[in-house]
Amino acid sequence: MLAPSMTMKPSRCARPLRPSGPARLRPLCLRKIVRANCSAENSNAGAGDKKDTMSALDALLGTPEPATPTPPKEEDPKPAPPTIKVEEEASVVEKLEAALPPATPQEAAAMWKQLDAEIEALRGMPPSERSRGTAGNGVLAALQKLSDANVTNAFDAATKNSMNVDTIRDMRATMQELKVAGIKDPEALGTPSTRNEATFLVASFLGTAVPATIAGYVLPGDWGFFVPYLLGGVMIVILTIGSTSPGLLQFAIDRVNLVNPDYKERALRHEAGHFLTAYLLGVPVTGYSLAIGETHTDLLAARIGRPIFQGRLNVDELSALSVIAMAGVAAEGLHYEDCQGQTADLVDLQQLLNRAEEPVDNQSQLNITRWATMQGAKMIRTHRREYTALMAAMSEGKDVGECIRAIEDATN
């Protein structure tokens, strides 16, 4: 209880006490008043009296509970800045590009002229400079300028429609899928044809044996002895070169096989397949030949920024280049039961696989060969009009710029 000598003064801080269980809560303001009165009225009292007074107050009001700190007011979190997805950003860019005014005929003609000039400049470079990674940048920039101005629509069109390849394991196809893609005989893929070589050997044998026999009967004296031996030696030289360096005979094989009725058409379809898929995948072409076995890798370096056979190829680079390498086989397979020009394409594909970042085992090589052929066949069938127009331009011997215009005219 309170000491008799203490008087309570009314204060605005005083509040009625509220029961809280067996003990009562003590208002902090009441305790302050008691302390002030103890100091003012009992200034002469001893320390013991003050202690007794405070003990009595504690007994009456109970032990004070520690003050609970007021938690700081939480601020509303700031809204996160809006994020734009890559797909949305690409869509916005495409809409802005589509909204641009089309190029005038004069501007388009100037762009085509610039492309022709860049191609001629590249073809005039020495082979050592042409193989550099930056050699085709001018041609690539000219084609990109035409595409940005909406003058061309097919260039790099297949790259925009991704082939959904994340790893090498995604690059696979079955025989049934090849059949569905339009390949007449999927079993013939990967089996090099020897028809052209056999034709060359037969022609070489007849071209030496028949004259040697005639010379032995017609020529007098020693000439009738030495000439047949010399002609027989030609056949021995051909067999020796064919068994050690068969590539040296490719020119002669191509020329001899011109007698085949379907050789020129095969060559045309084969090289048109390389040309079209390269253009659709954003790889510019600066030249072409209707000889089966001739490759077009001089501008592939412009796409990846370095020579194709230097450094490692990631999955995106490998997928695009493998489709281009096997597009000639796909073009033949869409129209013939066998593929005559696949030997050089398989060699190019093997060189690409040897440069892959991920290790490629034998089964993966087979899967990639089938997958690349299937993708090439799908592109050719999807762009059938462009393919037909390109073959017509190539059969007339038109230059690269005119062939590209033929593709774009068929697209539009």
Automatic annotation (TrEMBL):
Annotated keywords: Membrane, Transmembrane, Transmembrane helix
Record InterPro entries: Peptidase_M41-like
Region Disordered, residue ranges: 1-24, 61-82
GO biological process, one term: proteolysis
Gene Ontology MF annotations: ATP binding; ATP-dependent peptidase activity; metalloendopeptidase activity
Keyword Transmembrane attributed: yes
Residues that span the membrane, as ranges: 198-219, 225-249
PANTHER family per the UniProt record, alphabetical: ATP-DEPENDENT ZINC METALLOPROTEASE-RELATED
Protein name, entry field: Peptidase M41 domain-containing protein
Organism annotation: Pycnococcus provasolii
